[in-house]
Amino acid sequence: MSALTAEPETAARDEEPPDTGERHRLTAVTGLAALSLDAMASVAYGPEAIVLVLAAAGGHGLGFTLPVTLAIAALLAVLVASYRQVIAAFPDGGGSYAVARAHLGRRASLVAAASLVLDYVLNVAVAVTAGVAALTSAFPGLYGDRLWICLAVLALMTAVNLRGIADSAKAFIAPTAVFVLAMLTLVVVGLLRSAPVSTEAAQGHASVLADNATTVGALLLLKAFASGCSALTGVEAIANAVPSFRAPRAKRAQHAEIALGAVLGVMLTGLAVLISRFHLQPVEGVTVLAQLADASLGHNWAFYVVQFATMTLLALSANTSFGGLPVLLKLLARDNFLPHVFALKADRQVHRHGVLTLAGVSAALLVLSGGDTNTLVPLFAIGVFVGFTLAQTGMVVHWRHERGPRWRGKAALNGLGALLTGVSAVVVTATKFHDGAWLIVVALPLLVAAFETVHRAYSGIGERLGLGRVPDCPRRARSLVVVPVSSLSRLTSEALTAAVSLGDEVRAVTVCHADPEDRAQAEALERDWALWNPGVHLIRLPSARRTLGRPVAAYVRGIEATEPGTRVTVLIPEVEPARAWQRVLQNQRGAVVAHAVRRDTDAAICRLRFRLS
Asked: Which of 1, 127, 239, 313 could form a disulfide with 318 if both were Cys (CB 3.0 to 4.6 A apart)?
């Protein structure tokens, strides 16, 4: 299989033998911990996004919090059901990219992939900055160092994920469990109360209710719905990362998807009920979730447990991107839309290049934003809505082609989901356009263009290499080996021994510069060479400039021009030190010669390592 054609992934991976690293893959529980943190943490800002929009209509508008949340929960159910089908139909992962590629064409699939890439990268930056913002709210003295704290958290996340997704999942099971338990406790206790037990958290903070309240119209409700849909980010992550699960992969991923939908739906609905029950009003400087914890549990240690659990999960929710994006990049690389290095796996089933690339781009975003959440939030969630819409539309086409049992109902469900998420994508983009969403509108086509450019490059290379066609039979040609030397040593002897074993003819070359010292050294080498008499001719290559690689490359070009049909190999002898630190003592002449020959000629390059014991 050529290096330019990635090995195809098939559904047969569910039958892989147990010795292929299964212990480094996810179970349903660890998959929930590794890939649902983004969705779980969204309950910290999803309900608040709804309340802040409805606050424009005053207290009357806040009465629509529960209906809007129920609509979002219904959409969540549609998405979970849809992605459960996506997992079954596309067990190689990829989510909306895989669906769009199969049913909507290449361009739509690239739009889906680009939207997911942007969403994953922004999720890391937003999650880390939001978590650190919660920390600096509790400890204001750290505010000036928030950027360095963000980068430290990102470095820690990267290091954990480089150990493997299964190991990272195990590290995040406890924080996820604590957060879910805290939220469910908050909801249950709150439902048992007839009035808030405490309002201390909101005291002294100005209300954000509009003084000149607007009417509650369809546009306001639609905007609240679209803003609240930010709570749905991360629902697609499990479908994107199906290959990371243990066999049977599809079933385990489906179980994790259903569990995510159930837990997230219960938390969103429960918090919305409490907002209506306690007639909560948003205030400046205090989150809605903090007010709910205060009202349900009181301003005591339980309140701080909820805050700490929320802070921790927000910071760790970046792990969803580390679990989903490398798999997506692998699929894009397999389809020749990204460099094939992204398809490589290291030990512990880690797509190392994808993890490091995600960390690098996210670090750049953190630096550019100064670690400020508000700078990044307007860019967040648009990409995932685009992916949702394309995935749902693709599944409608899928059901029309498959026409299995009850396919009309399934297609109608996906069609409704596509309509709702499509409208949400348009509304969010329009309402947040001047707040920075225009960057996503610009970045999306640029990323698609980059995918197309890489694909054209691979197609051109494949055409020139004749991939897919039977090549000519190999034939023997005259072989000439050129060996650059600068002195006589055991290294020179080893190089010539290897050269005479490889080629029909061997020529040693030495570069001589114009200054008297270099000429004297070259003459001394020629005298010693004649006395040694290794049976290989030594050729002096004069050079007016103090360069080493260009004279050798020019000599090789001359051979290619005057001796057509000769296969030229440049054998470059180099010392391999006994200790790694001793490499800094080397002069790197071999690398200079290799670069010049590779750049200017068609000769083969052989770098001979002489190991010093």
From this structure: 127
